[in-house]
Each structure stands twice: as structure tokens, then as C-alpha cells.
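Form 12-C: Joint structure prediction
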Amino acid sequence: MTVKVGINGYGTVGKRVADAVAQQSDMEVVGVSKRSPTYEARLANELGYPFYAASKDHLDAFDEKGIEVQGMLYDLLAAADIIVDCTPKKAGYKPIYEKAGVKAMWQGGEKHSLTGLSFNSLANYDEAYGADYVRVVSCNTTGLLRTLYPIHTDIGIDRVNAVMIRRSADPWDTKRGPINSINPVLNIPSHHGPDVQSVVPEINIQTTAVKVPTTIMHLHSVIVDLKEDVDTEHILDLWERTPRVKFFEASQGVDSTAKIMEWAKDRGNVRGDINEIAVWKDGTQVEDGTLYYYQAIHQESDIVPENIDAIRAMMEMEEDNMKSIEKTNAGMGIE
Amino acid sequence: MTVKVGINGYGTVGKRVADAVAQQSDMEVVGVSKRSPTYEARLANELGYPFYAASKDHLDAFDEKGIEVQGMLYDLLAAADIIVDCTPKKAGYKPIYEKAGVKAMWQGGEKHSLTGLSFNSLANYDEAYGADYVRVVSCNTTGLLRTLYPIHTDIGIDRVNAVMIRRSADPWDTKRGPINSINPVLNIPSHHGPDVQSVVPEINIQTTAVKVPTTIMHLHSVIVDLKEDVDTEHILDLWERTPRVKFFEASQGVDSTAKIMEWAKDRGNVRGDINEIAVWKDGTQVEDGTLYYYQAIHQESDIVPENIDAIRAMMEMEEDNMKSIEKTNAGMGIE
Amino acid sequence: MTVKVGINGYGTVGKRVADAVAQQSDMEVVGVSKRSPTYEARLANELGYPFYAASKDHLDAFDEKGIEVQGMLYDLLAAADIIVDCTPKKAGYKPIYEKAGVKAMWQGGEKHSLTGLSFNSLANYDEAYGADYVRVVSCNTTGLLRTLYPIHTDIGIDRVNAVMIRRSADPWDTKRGPINSINPVLNIPSHHGPDVQSVVPEINIQTTAVKVPTTIMHLHSVIVDLKEDVDTEHILDLWERTPRVKFFEASQGVDSTAKIMEWAKDRGNVRGDINEIAVWKDGTQVEDGTLYYYQAIHQESDIVPENIDAIRAMMEMEEDNMKSIEKTNAGMGIE
Amino acid sequence: MTVKVGINGYGTVGKRVADAVAQQSDMEVVGVSKRSPTYEARLANELGYPFYAASKDHLDAFDEKGIEVQGMLYDLLAAADIIVDCTPKKAGYKPIYEKAGVKAMWQGGEKHSLTGLSFNSLANYDEAYGADYVRVVSCNTTGLLRTLYPIHTDIGIDRVNAVMIRRSADPWDTKRGPINSINPVLNIPSHHGPDVQSVVPEINIQTTAVKVPTTIMHLHSVIVDLKEDVDTEHILDLWERTPRVKFFEASQGVDSTAKIMEWAKDRGNVRGDINEIAVWKDGTQVEDGTLYYYQAIHQESDIVPENIDAIRAMMEMEEDNMKSIEKTNAGMGIE
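Section 2 - Result
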């Protein structure tokens, strides 16, 4: 028996989650939903995902463009065991899901308070087991948790300072700038630190952030005061054993976010995505008990496998988080 | 019996040509060659392409990085029926190929005079039939020929003025700028016009060019004085029947080079490439016998199918250019 | 006696027009007006321009930030002989000016129909003589008229095709993108051609346009079919004698919009502006009766001297357009 | 009596230092020197700076372009009391200056070991007093010293972690990229920390750095563990009294490097430069004894006043660093 997954919001994240669900043997896409008749609605048709209209406003337009509409959003809610909400932040669908009596999960654009449960596969899978409403944390927070959580449990962390150098727009988003500026996020510390703590409250972390004119990946410069003075090799070994963390080396020509993207294309990754957190092996160093490292985050896709794991936890399909991670990775082609 | 293809230069174009050759039933990759031990050399290993070192200088480095080396470039030349040269322009390998007695083809960075034969699948496949040395014209020239040649033969052209708005660097190339500038190519007219004429001398075309700070596609604004005053629909019908020309519509949300790239990723195209020339249906218009249109060119991949066709022509594998085009397209997954 | 000029809208254009008015001996700034209490309102205070609030909504905020407010917009209208409207397009102040009985001029963001009179200093100064309402055409249209009008009168033009490669945002505008895309303007031909004709209907011109990720200057690639086959030198001589057209040469290192901006800074131009249209001498060429050239347009400042001339015409301060141009240029430090 | 200053290298830094020297009452520009006949050589002529050729190779070219050449570099060395070397790094002129018996100072591209004395006006003016050879530290190091040194002396610093988000090219530099990438500097910690310590060895500082696709300013995210837990106001007061540190506020619309540049243009700063370090008042915060702040660095001009002070120290023109700073600032129009 496979779990029936509906996806509300078929854009940057929704289309990726749909494909990832379809790649798993224990779940299926019963439908995707979207408001406007862009080419992505047609894409859903082509990929064989039943398409549901999120609003009556554009029904004529779907018809005009020859996009086959299976029904309305409430039909999808009725057909699904669980909804992955990939709509823009604050879209406000929770009461609708509650009324339909369907489980639901959201993305990191929403606040922790929406669900009271923020999720990371490695850190708190158990908490989400059987839960009705879960928030998968943002791409940046997911990235921080993937590399910090094993250090937290294995070595212990006194303090983390992370500076997030953020891409300003997704590749397809031609409206947003800046074109030639660095924009600091002047709320200090930035919201990313508390967001990490919404999953693991014990990690002492402060973050700052700036926006820069790129479209392809966020980059973090992270400084960790360790509880114990281990050597660099110890940290690298730890990450070697951590799922969804992948090493790159400048000495092999991969010395920028652009080169990581090229690698992902060359590897044949769908959409050129990289679901892993990219850590530079030759940019990692421990000095006097302080760890310095850089990591790059593919903002459109690192949270996709976390969404799959969250489905498994919420639907009580698999008790062990490591087994879910393994299944998800195998289905998605993550090493 | 399959034709044995060697690729000298395993970079942006070389890696794409290798994959395209591997997708054809009537040819195979007998090896690829490269000078330096970047991750792309390892990629060749992983994909099962026999790897040959283009220079003795880096043999130790290949060894050190665990990249399996099958032999030297001359070994590859001996093993191959034909070499696709994808080395940087003016690399100067022609005498070496001549000495080895192997057929060879080059990319558009080289001058017409190197081979005396510049190639486009649609326009002059016959000329390349059985030829020993051929140059496949550049991405921009290929783009111009794909849309202009059918107009030239079907309607007739009085004059073409094309302005090429060129991306300044490939996505992986983090060295090249500009970051915030428009750089005009002050040699007027630019070399693209004569390059079109190196394939079809009868087309009266002048071009100018500017470089802009993007990495993803060239864009052409083309103005064609037609010999006959047809309507816009006539032109669109013509292109509808032309291989490797694909329509996009702003009304479906595809209103920029960035959105075309997104479409290509969503379609599942390998590396997010688009081998077709992208023409905006709602940006095409005939007024008083003058045709205006915009087209976008994926600089890294539009010439790849042309390379495959050129192999077939030079090796006398297929007499009819339309049949070769069809075979190539089927193998590569081009509609 | 000096003419009293009020400026409504103290942003990108307004602050430049204010300074240019202040530099003229026959006019003075009686006040500037703005809605919101940004640092630019303070700047007006510091420069000694009486400041008027455009709306009551922010009066407290002005007070809080210590910005001295002289009165409201209607006070400014009463004090001024003429208003230069530099508010965002479609702000809709015309009825207010009419009611106040004050002359007014607008910028090129507005439609021709607003005033029925579109202005360029060289081409139709006489038409604006004594007029109550005038629109100074946009930066791009002004640029086209500066170089085309002398050719139109001296040689005659059969047809112009111009491609405008447009910067996407002003340098201070950090909201607008794209970051990595070329966006064609799919309405063909673009509005720039008809806009030229709103000043000189006899010029046969079609234009297309694309937006690119730069902030500093527009660039035009212009192709002119001449009525007479003159040589390149003839064209250069003509422009040499044309005010507000300035030559640059790649052979002296000025081969991009970025280098022109650097030149303007080095020359000591206020704000690094360049009020002239920049034409590449070594990018200009006549071939078989067709003229090819590139020009660059400083979007924030080329229309400023035109605003000054329009004031003189509307206020009947000077009958001869060339004399006004000379006065304006002398005051503003334009060669 | 005025000190005679020669400038070797009349590019980005050299042209600014020349103008700053000319603005001081106690020093004069006896000449500037450059290798190639770009428009900047002509600029020197126009500004009345005697021009000397740095190499015989281009003498004809200077002549051809009508650039007046006063003599060769060694003539300039003979005429000057002190040389400000603004040539590209590792240009290697030291032996030539030694042979000519002229004092000389270099910029931050050079290593500390070249002079054994690295300079900052605030921190170690005395050490440079009477010295023959001095290195003015880089724009980034100058920026760090301006804000850290007063904290070091007033409060005491346990540790500094600074992440430098660096612009990748100067505005005029159209060759350098990246266009769409973030490039981490993988040498950890980066050289900026030790460079700060070349002036003030007692400051415990580690730095990391990334390059981003902008041209206009560097931005630092700085975290300082203070020896004493003061409040935010204390820090702001301290910087208020520190020369060449200037506050900006997002609440007044200045929330990015682009807006700072706009402010500098509006203020009428020559070339739109800003010699001060820009600190965001509303981006500064002390939490539990840790100070967080952002600062922006105008890479082309913050070191210019430091060059002037270094001349005064080396030539023993003024014993008190604060008096030199005041004189320099007054001459250059720094508040």
C-alpha cells in the first residue's frame, strides 16, 4: 500500500517534491494543485500528475490553454492522505486542511508557530512521527543542521557564528534584484539562528546575513567553537559519515558555487539540482578548538529529501530516521 | 558497424558531444582526451569513456588523483575513424591529425580557412559528404542559419540586420566579466555576418554585437527585409516545420532567457541544455515586408546535434541531411 | 529677473534638475517637493532648496527626522512660475497644476497625449515656445533624437532600425532585477520608435529592445539607411558640430559603458553623470549608404539639460534654441 | 615650504592620491608617471600634473595621442621628495627608488616584508615618523583597523571574527568576473587577519572571505568578543568620535552598498568616492558581551587619506597623528 500525497503549490519547490515522491516506492502523487495556467501546469499534465485548480478564477484560462483539470483543490484534499504545501509563505491554507481532515506539511517560509513542530531528518525525525502538521525548515536552516547536528552530538558546540551570503533570486525569477549591490540584513542576529534552535534548542548559534547578486546557491561561512579540541580530520570523518553532506575540492577545480552547479549538471542530476549540502574539504580547518568551514546550499532542492522523510514520519511509514533517509536517497539517486 | 569517434578536448563542448555520440546507434565514443586532471577527467572515467592524456606534462597528476589513463592522444588518433576537436581555438592540432591520417572536425572558434568548409546541417550537408576536414560554425551562426535558411529558400531575403546580445561567460566560468557593463563589439559589422556567408554566401547579412553580464544564453534581435510580403503566420508555419527551432510564448510565462533555461530543466533535459533555437512566437512580426523576431541561443549546446550530423556526412553514413537530422534528434531526445 | 522653478518629485531626475536650475543665471529653485522623509529630503535642506511636503501623510515623520518643511505642495505651486514634474509616471498631478494656474512640464515616462507636445531642444524648441504643458521625452528617445535629427536634416533618412539594450535598474535601485537574464521587450516594434516620431514625425524608425542586468547606461545599436551615400567622416563631422553628442574611442581605453562612467567620474562630473550622448568614434561606419553606430545613454542625466531648455522655451526667456542650449551647457559645465 | 610628491602609477589609486595631495596646503604634486597612453594620461595633462613616462616602450604612442611628456620616471624620482607607488602589486620598483635615494610608500597589495612597516593613521602614525619606506595597508585592512582600533584601546578585544564579502572588480574593470557565482577564499583564515596584526599585533582576529559579483564596495560582517560588556550605545559613541567612520541608517533609506554610493554622489563627493568607513547604525548590536556590526568599504578611496597622513609622518611634517588626520580631512572635504 502506498501513501497518497497531494502537492498544493506547483512551483519551484512543489515540482521538485512531486518528482521526488514519484521516485519513492512507498508513496505516490495523487495530484498537484496550482492557481495560474503557466507552462508548469502543462508540465504537470505531461508528467502525468493529476492536476487540480487551486482557484476558480482561472478555470477558463486553463481550458483555453488546453490544460486538463481533474478537479478543484478540495477534491485533491479528499483524495490525499497528506498534503505537502508548497504555496508562497502566509498563503494561509491551514484551516482548509483542518476542515478537510488531512495531514499537512509546510516549507520554511512559514513560522515555527504555524505547526509548533519544525523538522530535520537527522535531528528530530522522532518528534514528527505520527504528527498531523509539520514545518520542514528552510534551505539555509536545513544546511546548518546537516553539518552542525553531528558536531553537536559527537563533539559538542560552545558557540556557532555563521554568516549567510545569500543568493538574491532563484534562476527563473527575473523581477528581483539587486543587480549590483550587497544588501546586509540589518536585523542582528538574523532569523536563521533561532530557526536552527526551533529544531535543536541546545545549539548556541548567532547568524548574520547579506544578499548578493547571484541566483544559484547560498554560501555560509561558519565558525564553530568546539567543546573539545579535535583535529580537522576528525570533523571531515564525521561529515563523511553524515548523509546529504558532500565534499568538494578546489584542487579539483570546484572552487565556487558556479562550479558546483556545473558538477551537478555533469553528474546528470535532474534540473541540475544538488540535494546535498556542499562542503569544501580544502576550506575546512580547525585552529585552537575553533572550526572554520564554508558550505554551499542549493536553495531550490536541499529541502526536497527532507520533505520525503517528513511524509514517512508523519504517516508512520518507517520508525527509524536513518532507514527513511536511506530509502529517500536511494529513490532520488542521492549517493 | 559503428563509426569510432574520438573527442579531443573534454570541456564545455567536448563533454556534450561525447554524450550525444554515445546516444546514437551508428557511432560510439572510442575515447576522449584532455590536458589537465580536473573533475571532468574523472567524469569521463565514471561515464566509461576511455580517457587519453593530451599531454605528458600532467601524467603524474592524473595518476595521483586516481584517474585512469588509457594512453596518449596519438593512441586515440589511431583508434578513431574521426576526431571531433573541441579544444580551445587556435590549439593547432590539424598537422597532428593529418599525420595520423584521421578525419577531423572543429568548432566555430576556428576560422573558415582552417578547413575551407563550414557546416550547417540544414544548409550544406551535401558539401561535407565524404570531406576530411570540416568546421561546424559557432553557436550564434548556427542559430542565425537555423531560422534564416528556410526563409532564404522559401521566400527570399533582401537584407538581414541582426544584433547579437551576447552572454559574456559560460555558467562555470567565474573568471570572465563584465559584472556591470555593456561592451559593444566595435568592429562593425561583426564577424557573425561573414560567418553566415561562409555557409550560405547568398544571404545578405550585416551584424553588430554587444556583450552583457549574463551567463546563460545569447539573444538575437533580427530584422529581415523579405523579398516577398508574406504575413507573420507564414513565417511561423515555416519555422514550425523547421527542425531544431522551438517556439516559446511570453503569454505562458516564458519571457526571458532565464525562463527558457527553467523550462529546459523542467523538461528533464540533460545539463538543462536546449539544443533548439528558441524563438518567441509572440515576439515575431512582419510589418510591410520586414520581419522582426527575437531568438535565444544556448551557447553550450545548440551546435551539438550539428556535430553529430557532420560526423554522418563526413563518414558517408547517411546521404540525406533530413534523415541524419531525424536520427540525431531521436537519439538526443530532441522533439 | 529670474524665473521661479518648482520641482515636484525630488528623486533620481528631480534632484538633478534642481541642481541644473540652480546653475543657471536666469532661473532659480523656489522649492522642491517630495512625499517621504528619506535622506534625499534632508539633502534638499542641506543644499538650501526650500522643501515642501507633497502629502500630509508623512508630516510627522519629516518633523521627527528634523527635516525642515516650508509648506505643502500647493504653497509651492503658488510660489512657482513653472513646475518640473519629476514624480513617478502616472502620478496624475495635471489637474492640480491646472487648478493652480501654473505651467508644468513632465518627463518621458508619461504619454505624449498628456501634453500633446513632446520636446527635444534641437528638434522642436519653437513648438514649446510659450506653451503651458510640455513633455520632455525619455532618455532613450532623447538619445536617438540627438544623433538622428542632424542626419535627418542634413542628409535625409530612409529608415532607422535601432535595438536598445537597456540597463534594468538605476544604480540605487536594489529591488529590481534581473540578475542573470536577458529579457526581450516582446511588443514589436517597441514604443521608442513612435516616441521619436512624437517629436519628428518624418523620421521612419522601428525599434526593438531588450533588458540586461546592468545599472549604468543604456546602449543603442543603430542602423540608418541614408538618403545619400556619404562617407563615415561626413557623419562624424556632423556630430562634431552637434551639441550634447560626445565621442569616445576604444583605442583610448574607453570600450564599454563602464569606462564611460569612469571617464565621467575622472572629469569631475557631479554624481559622475554624463549629460551628453556617448558615441563611439571607432564604432561608427557607413557601408553602401547604410550607417552603423553605437551610442550609450546615461539614463539618469541626459534629459536634464533638455528640461532646462524647455523651461526657457515655455517661459519665453530665449527665442533661439541654439542660444538656450549654449546657456544651459555653460551653466551645467557641458563642453 | 611644501613637500614635493611624485606618484608612480596613475590608475585607480594613483589618480585619487594625486588629487588628494593637490588639495593639501603643505604638499604638491611634482609629477605623475604611467606606462601606457590611455585617456588617464591625458587626464593628468588636463589637470596640470606634470606627466612622466614610466617606460620608453610607449613614447611614440604618447606623442601620437598628443600627450605631453615631461620626462622619464627617473626624472620624476629626482624631482620628488617622496614617491607614492600606486603601480600594480609586485611591480618591483623598490631598488630603483633606493638607487635614486628617494623615500617611498606602497599600497596594500604589497607584502608587509617589503617595508617592514605597515601603516594606519590612527594606530601607528608614530612608527612611520621619519621612515624611508612604508606600506599603507589595503582597503579592507584599513577598514577593519578604523573600527577595531578604538575598541581595542577603549574596551579591549578578546577575539574578532570577520567575514569579508568582497566586490570582485572595480567599476571600470570589465574583464574580471564572476558574473553569477560566489567564490569563497579557501585559504582559512584569510590574509586579512594577519594583515591587521601587521599594524596592531595585539588584536586577536581571524577572517574569512568570499568574492561576489558586484563592483562597488566590500562589506564586512564583524563579530567582536569584547573584554568588557558595554552596551551598544557605548560602541556608537566611540565610533562617533573616531575620524573617518561614518554612520548610515536603513531607516533613512540607506540599506545597501548601492544606496551608500548614491549618497556619496548626492553629497557631491568627487568621483562619488567615500573615504570614510560606512557603518550601519541600525545594524550594530552588542549581545552578552559580543558586538555584531556591518561595515562597507569603498575599495578605491578609503586608503587615500591614509596615504596623505603617511606622507606627513615620513616627511616629519607633523608630529601628532590627530592633527595630520584633521588637516588631511579638511583638505579633502571629509567631515
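Section 3 - Comments
Chain B touches chain A at residues 15, 37-40, 42-43, 65, 171-174, 179-180, 215, 252-256, 258-259, 261-263, 265-268, 270-272 (CB under 8 Å). Chain B has a mean pLDDT of 96.
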